[in-house]
Amino acid sequence: MASWFWRKRGSSAGKGSGPGPTKVVLDGSDIEELVGNKEAFSSYVDHKFQELDRDHDGKLSVRELEPAVADIGAALGLPAQGSSPDSDHIYSEVLSEFTHGKQDVVSKSEFKEVLSDILLGMAAGLRRDPIVILRMDGQDLREFVESPKFEPTAVSIFSTIEPGNASLGKCMLLALEQLKVEQGMPPSSDTWVSSNIIEPVLQSFSSDQLEKPVSDEVFLEEFKKLLLGIAQRLQEHPVIVAHSENTFNGSGIRRLLSNKFEVDKLLDATWKDLPKDRHHKSSKEYLRIALDSIAAAAGLPPYGAVNEIDAIVNEAIRMVNADDGKSMNEEEFKKLIAEILGCIMLQLEGRPIFVSSNSVVNEPLASSSSILCPAPDSTDLPLKE
């Protein structure tokens, strides 16, 4: 995901000078600044178009667009293509935005226009829900282990593990899962972190140590050794983590529905873009696509990004009988969308959903197509370690 973004010089902030924790807040302002500068954005588009145009014919084929579409999906927080039918549908819609659903190739001007719309939409989302990029080099973790907070935290974690006959190694791995980024620990569930940070430290323990039964005293002592080892490993191999959090409580929907002018304008534009039959009707199957189009304005994530929200959306569609696959005219469409949004709002107001995510960004990402990385002559610094 971080391959989509860059940080300006001087935007990092650590504890004191020299090496240390780095925090970069991505709030969309850099993207808005880029798109708003016509000369800079044109140069940027030229560079990215040339990068994607593998056969140098001055147009982008569907195959040549695929890396850009994959990057957009990653930036939206979607799983990789092929892992979910729902997210694959969104990838298809992003591609359709470029090709208008029927073109085999896309010109540079068309690419520029669609990319501008997508970037501004992403900027609006980041302005609403900023992403914090953290450089984790072991300093925060070491400070946590050496602080008075460590022992009561470790005791509390151990009490939830219910070790029984579990080995020391198993207990320590389960305990790592409960440590947070705020305590200086990158997500242990990430395969890169597990392979490159945790496993090398565990190898410093003997097999007999890891397999023996564990008491709370032994756990405290050995878990502390493990964390200090991980801190040292992070100092040698810092990890970049993208952290975001959001609470979906229906307030965005309520704000939208209270502004009739904005709602009418949004629904007019959304209806215009939906496929129609010869009677100027559209299938109710496209309601999820329509909801995706207005998700940002309603303070909702893209469909497929948050499972709990997807479940509420699906239930709302069922509640208003909008899942029968029948056709609808414009008036029926607007009424259904308003009813669906109302149902979603009531559900979220009664039971808000808090989402916190930590995505590890490591070197393999540097080789992927990074459509939002700045051009080589940019004065910004790429976010790679």
Automatic annotation (TrEMBL):
UniProt-recorded Gene Ontology molecular function terms: calcium ion binding
InterPro entries named in the record: EF-hand-dom_pair, EF_Hand_1_Ca_BS, EF_hand_dom
Region feature Disordered, mapped onto this chain: 1-23
Keywords linked to the UniProt accession: Calcium
Annotated ranges, domain EF-hand: 40-75
Sequence ranges of Basic residues compositional bias: 1-10
Superkingdom classification of source: Eukaryota
Name recorded for this polypeptide: EF-hand domain-containing protein
